[in-house]
Predict the structure.
Amino acid sequence: MRLHLTSIDLIVLAVIVISGFFGAWRGIVKETLSIAGWAAALLALFYGFAPFQPVTRDFIHNPAMADFVTGAILFAGTLIIVSVFTHFLSKWVHKTAFGSADRSLGFVFGVVRGGLIICMAFFLYSAAVPDMDEYPDSLKNAYTLHYIQTATDYIADFVQQNQVDDEDSLRDKEKQKADENSKETEYKDIEKNGLEPPAP
């Protein structure tokens, strides 16, 4: 059976293969630490902005410019520090016996990342064009469309389920806190009236 690939199929394959080889070139250590670097930079910006804001404003009298400089230093500074650490650690790993495994795992990471990029792109496109009849022929006839749809639906269901679980957990915590506050108020009222508190 001969496969009839459309331009969409070729784009999908190109994204996954390029991402895979890019991951192999960088290695799993560098790939994961790069993501950790962005996360660390965002955390530094989130938690460090308020403490450092007054310090920067003492040197820069324009508040808007001072805030911009504060954010830029925190974000870029953290990213640069983590990037330097990542570079030397990755270089050291490639010289060890783990080097080949690092590149192999990096390739797998890159393939998965490429697939996620494709799924995200399809999710956004399908949200903008919900009717499949309006899809271009290159997409409707794509061999990979079924796999992309299945993977995208699975990811969407997984995210939605986790969101529901988080909301349920948050409601349970709020209910538990409300019950504790109610009991605390009840005990205070009992003690205020000079009565014995009920047994727990």
Summary: Residues 7-59 form the longest helix (53 residues). The radius of gyration is 27 Å.
